[in-house]
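User: Fold both of these, please.

Assistant: Here is the first one.
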Amino acid sequence: MKKQVVIDYRTDKQAVSALTELGYETIPTLPVPALYDEVKGHADMQLHIVNGKAVCAPEVYEYYKEKLDIEVTCGSLPIGEKYPCDIAYNTCTVGRFAVCKMANTAPEILSEHIDAGHEIIDAKQGYAKCSICVVNETSAITADEGMYNLLKKRGLNVLKIDPCDIELYGMNGFIGGASGLLEDDLLAFNGDIRTHRNRDSITGFCKNAGVKIVCLNTGKLADIGTIIRIP
């Protein structure tokens, strides 16, 4: 069975080709009309992987049920137009921790994490998946001060970077949204990590964690809503 990743349907051809060459089948997202244009195709706003399952927003459930090679559950919360109603599926898993804004997270996601024995970290910042780049089960990168503090308090290795050098259609993007852990030891970036001012810190941090970096395309890092690997 071919390995799958879900990516924004607007992801450039160079990145798609790179993923294909690495052996992954790319599943493009669907646009969600409720979301504003910059993020309407972001995978991390539409589905969350937990316990080997995908919990999806009802708007895209039938699509992912057909496309993905894992069990797909339909979440009960639709994707809202404005924050915080747009973050129901934007949970980030780092090892045994699930980071999210609990009050606005799909209950199916919370239930799956509880069943898995994970500790749920209730964050003020609702865009957890966007803002956290997962390096391995004990390591992460973020530019968000609140996320940094929450993860450090749990004993995780966290690299704090500057909130810059990541594009999002003319806006400032997030490091989590510009990346995705493809394998336990392989982290992909959408763009060239050398264009980020904290490149040396990022590459050194990943090397110390035993994780290799692959850049899927040239140019600046761009937030595409996370490269979501299907287990």
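And the second sequence with its predicted structure:
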Amino acid sequence: DGRSILFFLNAFWRNRNETDPEKIKTLIAKGDFIVKELETLYYLRKYRTLKQRYYQ
């Protein structure tokens, strides 16, 4: 989806001038959380599709 790519590009662009190491660590941790969340949503969608296809 093009909107999600723009969302992440804008997130990097908004924080491009950040120099505080603690703030950068916080932003990286937030990014890691978002990656895990997206992986979970993808897995859930895949699971629901397989369940619908084979168990109903």
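Residues 19-56 form one domain.
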